[in-house]
Every structure is written in C-alpha cells, then in structure tokens.
Amino acid sequence: MPAGDSAGAEARRQLALADAHANAAAEARAKAARFGIAELTERRTAATLAPLSGVGYHLLADRGWPGSRTAQVDLVVVGPGGVFIVDTKAWRDVSIQGDRVLRGQDDVTDDLLALADLGYAAEAEFAEVGLAPGEVRPVVVLAGRHGINERVGPVRIVGEKDALRHIASHGTRLTPAQVDSVLARALSYFPQVGASPPVNVAVPEPLVPSPAGSFEQEALLSEDEVQAALLEGILASPIEEWMSFLHPGQAKLVRRSFNGPARIRGSAGTGKTVVGLHRAAYLARTRPGTVLVTTFVRTLPGVMRQTLARLAPDVVDQVEFASAHRFALGLLKERGVTVNLQPQQARNAFERAWREVASDGALGRSSLERRYWEEEIDYVLKGRGITRFEQYADLTRTGRRHRLTVEQRRAVWALFEAYTRELRARRVHDYQDVILLADAELRRQPLDRYSAVVVDEAQDFSCAMVRMMHALVRDSTDGLTLIGDGQQSIYPGGYTLAEAGVSLAGRGVVLDINYRNTAEILAFASRMVDGDEFADIEGVVARGDVPGNVARTGPDPVIEQCVNRAERDRLVVGRVRSVTATVGTSAGDVGVLCVTAKGVERAADALRAAGFPVVLLSDYDGAPVDAVKVGTIKRAKGLEFKQVLLADVRADQLAGAEPPREDASRERWQLLRRELYVAMTRARDGLWLGVI
Predict the structure, then answer these.
(1) Rounded to whole angstroms, how far apart are CA atoms 315 and 546?
(2) What residues make up the domain containing 146?
(3) Rounded to two decimals, what is the model's pTM?
C-alpha cells in the first residue's frame, strides 16, 4: 500500500462516520421536536378534557394500540356518553374536502383511517359486554384550533376548544353500572404503556429541561366555557337503555357481515327492530351511499327516523326512511313515470268489474264473501305481479287455506282482467299498481344510490315489494336485511322468498330473548296463536318462535266484561286515569289500540271528553309527546307502550273460542287472532281488555 493510503482511508471513514452521526443527530432532533410537540398538545388535550372527570368520565392516557408493539393511543375517554378514542394532531393548514383530509398539499386521510380501523376493532371488543357499535367514537382533536366539527367517515374532527363540548354533548347514554362494565373492558383492551426503552448511544445523556410552552396556542377553556359545556351534556335528553346498550348477542349481530341477503327473525319483543335500527346506523357509518330502511306501515318510518336521530345523530342523514309505497311513488316521480293513485276510484272500478263478470258467476255463487275474491286479486295476483293465467293456474297460493277449483281460478282471472280494464278506462292506479310500476322501472334501469336496504316487518310485504327492494342492492354483501316474524303476519295470502328471486342460503339468525313483555303478558298473548301454523317466507309451514328467556314479571292482564259500548268507554277512561296515577307512567306511555277505525274514533272521543290529551297513531311521528296514543292495531306495529288497552274486542275473539270450520272463515279468524297477538305484545308492563 502506498504511503499515506491507510491514513487517507481512515480519514474518509471518520468523515463518513461524522456525517452519519450528524444525520442521525439531526433526525433525532427532528423526532424529538415532533415528540415534544406531541407531548405538549396531548397534555393540553388531556387538560381540556379533565373537567369530564367531575361528571362520571374516566380518562385513560397513553394507552397501547391493540395489535401494535409501538403505536399508542393518546387518550381513551369512557363515561356516560360512551367511549371516545382521542388522537391529537398538531396539524397546521388543514382542510377537509369531501371525504379527504389535506395538510397543505399532502393527503393525510390515511392517518384518520387508521384511527377508524381501531374504532371498528374496539366495537367488536366492547360488543362482548353489550355496548352498541355506535357508542364507540374515534375523535381527532386539532391542537390550537376551535370552531371545527367535521366528520370524515366514522371519525369526528374537532378543534381543541371544541373537544370538551363535543364529548359532553352526548349526554347520558350509559348508566353508571354500564360505564363500569365498559371501563373494565377498556382497561384490558388498551394496555397501559410502560416506560420508554433506554437510549442505546455511546454519548452522555444531556440534561433535558422541562418543556417550555413555545408551541403557540390559545388559552385553555375558561371556567365559564367549561361549565357551559358540561351543563349542555347534563341537560341533554337521556335516551332509552336499548339505544346504547344491547345484549352481547344483539351487539354482535348488528356488526355481523353476510355475503348476501340475510334474515333476522324472532317472536314479538325480542328486539328485532332495535337490531335493525342499530344495523342501519352501523352500515351507514361504515360504507358510502345511502341506507334505506323500509316497512309496510305508512307512519312507522317517521317514528323510526325520530328514534335514529336520538340513537345515532351522526349518521341519521345518511339513512332514508320510507314505506314501500312512498319509496315506489318517489322513484316513479323521479323517473317521470305517470301514476294516478286513486284508492276510492279503484274500489269503484272493482265493484263495476264484479257486477259485470262475477256476481252471477262461479264466484258470486260460492259461499265466500266478495272481499275474499278481492283479496285474491290484490295479494295473490297483483301482489306477485302475475300477468298470465298459466302462472296462476299452477300457483301454490301460499297462505290461502281455501282450495280453488279450476273453474274458480278461471273466474278469478276473468274478474282480474275486467278490473284491469276498468282501471285503465278510468286512468287510475291502485296501491299494487304503484309497486308493480316501480318494480318494472327498476328492471328497466337499476338504481345504484343505496348501499344497503333494511326491511322491517318483512312478513307484511308482498312478493313484488321484496323483489323491488332486492333489485336495489341485489345479492351484495350486507345489501338486503329482512327482519320480521311470520307469527305477526296480519294480511291475507303470503309469498316465499324463492318467488321473489331471493336466496338466503342459510343466512338467517333467530333472536330468542324477550326484552319487552312480562311473562304474564306474553303467556296471555301467546294463547291467541297457540297451535297456529303459517306459511313462512322461507317456504315452509311453521309455528311461531318461542322465546328462550323472559326475564320480567308483572301483574296479570285484566279483562273487563262490558254490557255495552258506553260502559266500555267509561272503563277505558277509568283505566287510563288509574295507570297514569302510578309513579313513572304518564299519558304518553299509554296506547289504546282498536281493531276498527270506528273503535279508534270512539276511544279518542271518550278520552278527550275526560280531559286526556290524545294523539292518533295515524298522525304520530315518533316525537316525544305526553298524550295517550290511540290507533288501530295495524298502526301500532313496531311500537311499544308501558300500558296497552284493547278497546274493541269481542268475547268470541279471545283465547278459548272455537275456530270456524270453513277454510276461508278460519283463515280470516286466524289473521284476526294474530292481529290481537300483535296488539297484546305491544305492552311492556300492563295489559287491559274491554270486552263486550
């Protein structure tokens, strides 16, 4: 080696080493600066949220990120408002554009999505103790900012000075016992971060001064601002327990994924609608597009929307509520399809068709009422969208007990054709036409704005209605969820999912714990359908599901024998006066249900005359109102009341009465008994019947 080469090589090595140390030092200083800022901002966020400790919250700082060896969670807040997973960001020049978050020119949305993923994982963990998924809320706090409250996906973005108000504003959603249960799970799931590992360098550790407040920030909240934020939460209306805390099995079902159409069934009071609403909120929170929640009863969607607005206000605008007919009418209007829904003119058209082709023929000579044949057309033919006699001739008429001869089927078809001609001559449509027109329009041009459809009370839908809803999402993952109970089917006829082109392929779940009724009420109601068999939508003859557990007990239902309607009216008023005198029961907790519209009118008039505020279920939109709810049983589907009064029941309609022998009469009798079963199972604490 030439002289001087070794010295030169060593010099170059030392210079390279010095450069490496310099780069490492610069990197360490930059990292230290970032951690220093993070330490300061996280401490300020913790200090900002510290007042929550005075109203039942627990602040878990510097917790481990589950599944990661190095990542940490800044703050986990557990309290009456739920669980908040808080991440503080010292970001400047932040802008939110649609579903993207920009830091200057850099897209930092992935940072938020990581927090969203943690939120999803935490939902599954807390479901083990029954916490509803929507009660786990990822929150990003922007240090030094205020006046910010935005949402990107499931992540809420707030300013530092907005964080306290945001969390406190959720009010009381969990009881102290539930908070304790969730807190125990949080302490286990988010482990305490241990001491930092030792620094492995060959230089003496410098003395590190205490951090100075060099990171320019506005002052923390004033005492008045703190008190105002906390007071807002304290004064927020409390919610029902089921809105935030479920049975663990229900909480898991809300998040369960199905690789196609799915069905959730269970007897009355098992929480089907509760699961459906939570599932709608969960799907809205976790996927783009709109979630449609639909049912048969016209007024129920409004009630459900009001409920979701309290259950999940963050996503209520991403969920559309509409009855099947309202949805169909909206679609037809949007597509420019002319529809002239005229129910009375449609009835006149049927009467004329009946006189012309049926009154003197095979149908008119039969022992069955004209109403039976009208229902045959409405539910069996038009409910399926049958257009050729050959289809009808071979049809298994699901849910219809009375067997028809070939002659009678031909006569029904002739009546159907005459009715169709009369409708066209009048240029009007009936309710079934609205569904069939919308179904045809979706086949012509699919609609892609819905990411999921949840059908409540699916047993009340016609075959064409289910086909229409299925067309919106087809067989997509978690696209169609059917919720219902065949035992509560109160309309003539029926259908099978196979007829609608829907295959469940084993994607069905049964709920078997009754949360609503007392054992006494459920036993009394169940006698109405004892031994009742029905045509289930999965294509089998079934009996109702029996709850495996009924935890609550209470007084026996009361039957009052009345000599006439006037006495029954007086007894209805007396019963309402008696139950509303009980602590914890107000007029708004009472439902007076009737089989007929005339019964509704009589009961409402009697209560008003006695000075009770009344709201008709036909007008009820779900908003809290301290008035007795009065309506038909059909209007009460999907609702519940502390106290239920059945105000127009006949003795021959109750348990123990002999059923008619003739098939068609027996079918109608069974439908009425199921309707009364539905009414009785609306009651949580007390049931009263006025019987003539």
Answers:
(1) 34
(2) 29-192+221-240
(3) 0.85
